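Following the same procedure, backbone shapes were mapped to integers, as reproduced here:
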Amino acid sequence: MSAIILRSNSYEIDSSLHITGNLYVQNIKNDNLEKDLDSLGETSRFTTIENYLYRVNESVNMTGIVSGPAARRSHMMFTVNERSFLLGGSGSGTLLTDLYEWDVTARRLILRSSTMTTLRNAAMCEFNGTVFVFGGEFNSGHQPSSVNVFVLETLSWATKGITGMAPTLVLSPLVACDQKTHKMYTLGGTDVGEDPVDTVQSLTMHSNPQSFAAESMPALSNDPSPGFAYLMHSSPLRIAYLNGHLGASPSATTNILLYDGSSTTTLTPLGDAMPSLTGYATVEWKNLVYLIGGKDYAGNDNTEIRKIQFSNSPMGFHVHTVVSGGTFQPYMFSKLFAAPTQLPNFRDFVVFGGFDEDSDQDVADMYTFLLSVPL
């Protein structure tokens, strides 16, 4: 591969990042960028679309790699203290007990433990470099009745108590995390019988002693299916959340709703509405929600990457398509994290696993998308 150097006013990318596939550059305001690309004979590999840089169409099938993760879904992917992990899940109906860490230099997942206690379909928040997990299922299939803390130094779990009321144990709730008050909000999900619920509750982290205080809140006006939740404002409370249900017709859209601690209303789109999608993966980065993969109402693969930007004034949201008609294979129920790179203000969006409806099998495919917001 020939050396590729992209320059803007504030950063430089070179071939050490192993850039392959197609790159998309959006509104980088630097004439030298176009000159560099032209002198390298690489202009045809780039398209101007937005204030981001993407590497797409770089797929790695991990099935043939001995140390690579097995096919799975219902796994957890998260980043804490600039370290990114993939944990457990289920593959071919079996709960998995492995833990992988993303190697920033090699750009691959490295096995760290094969005997990790696995939690799947749980609620998770990261506060001040500590990951807190509530609900979900253990390897044994029983839900935990306490909060579990991921200890980064030992790559193990510690159990913390819950004070006050006994929280409702839920599977696959929507989760919003308040970094100021250290509150984890869980919205909806399913009960132990896998029936949908309209429960809302908050868990507040206390550092001394380290424990959680549970609080029940007024229920939602619907039973949200798997989607995402985003904390727009903590005081007054405003949590935006997206139902994962498909619309009732091909022309229907999926509403983003607003929960204010007492009632639920429909949040106004400030532009394009959110299309009906299900089975997608999401991640928050730089106060934006990125949505990748899944399917639309008609069962077509969603090959677009969208970002959702929320606004408190005026109240509403914007939906932007940042990559249109990508060439990656989006699987249902994939997960992703935004992993750090060797350059500041860059993230590798790493998508792994999911379910292939055509073959009726879990998958072990991994896709990466390099994203940058120029400083």
Notes: The helical segments are 31-39. Residues 60 and 202 are 39 Å apart (CA to CA). The longest strand covers residues 315-323. The radius of gyration is 21 Å.
